[in-house]
Amino acid sequence: MKLHEYQSKRIFARYGLPVPQGNVATTPAEARQVAHLLGGPVVVKAQVLTGGRGKAGGIKLAKDAEETEEAARQIIGMFIKGLKVYKVLIEQATDIAQEMYMGIVVDRTHRKPIMIVSAQGGIEIEELAKNRPEMIFRLPIDPLRGLMDYQARNLAFELGLHGGLIRPFTAIARGLWRVFVENDATLAEINPLAITSEGQLIALDGKITLDDNALFRHLELNEMRDLQGETEAQRQARQADLSYVKLDGDIGCMVNGAGLAMATMDLVDLYGGRPANFLDIGGGARANKVAAALHIILADSDVKVILINIFGGITRCDEVARGLLAAMEEASTPVPPMVVRLVGANEEQGRQLLAAANVINATSLIEAAQKAVELASGQSQMQRP
Ligand code: GDP
Ligand code: MN
Q: What predicted TM-score, i.e. pTM, was given to this entire model?
């Protein structure tokens, strides 16, 4: 479960990490009120569960309450990466001299949490890892001993910090470690960790992801769950009990079983295509669940080709076919080319049901993936309405 910036910062503050003064607002009038109470220039920040808000226009500086109200009016209701903004965080503006990065994640290679720091922050760490890997320092942390003072100091030296910044830096690193461990987080991140023009360190952005499997022992954190913090597709997937992850390609995939879904995506990738999503309909899906899954794929305007790979067992191919037909009938937009591989339980009935529909049959997974990729590259010049 991901926490919003304002929620993460409240937790940070509880652990003594320096964060700007501020509060959340859900209306422009409330935003004005918060800015008025804070006094002076503020930043108005969209609270959505994704990064890159700055680039998307979700972060604005305002010099007074008047401008804050206007900024909030622009930001509330906007969409950032498919997520609607319902809340803004209003904070005292900071005069930034340098933006750094500090984060802790569970690292499977080291089988430990690792602290990642960089003197170059503000941008997404994945981007930095790609373009300037030499700017990133990683420190595996022994979970039993925790982050030791000397380790935090070493990180400060790696970053080129000196003088009065070393102590506050180590205090923040240790604080972030406690945030991470005591809340059962899988990620705790400060980006940017800013050095102000007065030479102070402050956490300007905060991000915490909690381990869902440990939420039962953090009931107060579970209450922070934001039911509005999901896209329409995610909401529909959750309601239909589908595992769905949106990706950036153009081949919409529907598969039964997570392993088969991964294998399908690997094959699409192998043949030079890009999946538009991961979608596992699970075992024993009935027609209505299949239809819900297809509706989600059809609603995605990135999808140029649909690839359906069903290995029938508990899931029956005729049920799948019925679900596909139902969703195609109800579709309000033209259905893109659909490559279907149905094998296993009741495959004959499934194929017969689909015979009248305009689908491309494939018998093997390789053939299905190749056809889908071929069609997607052929379609790349065409625009779907
Ligand atoms: P993200 O883009 O979603 O990661 O949002 P951030 O909270 O990290 O903000 C993006 C950028 O906005 C930061 O890297 C800063 O450059 C800028 N920013 C955020 N808060 C302030 C502030 O108080 N003052 C100034 N000058 N810039 C800020
Ligand atoms: Mn950030």
A: 0.79
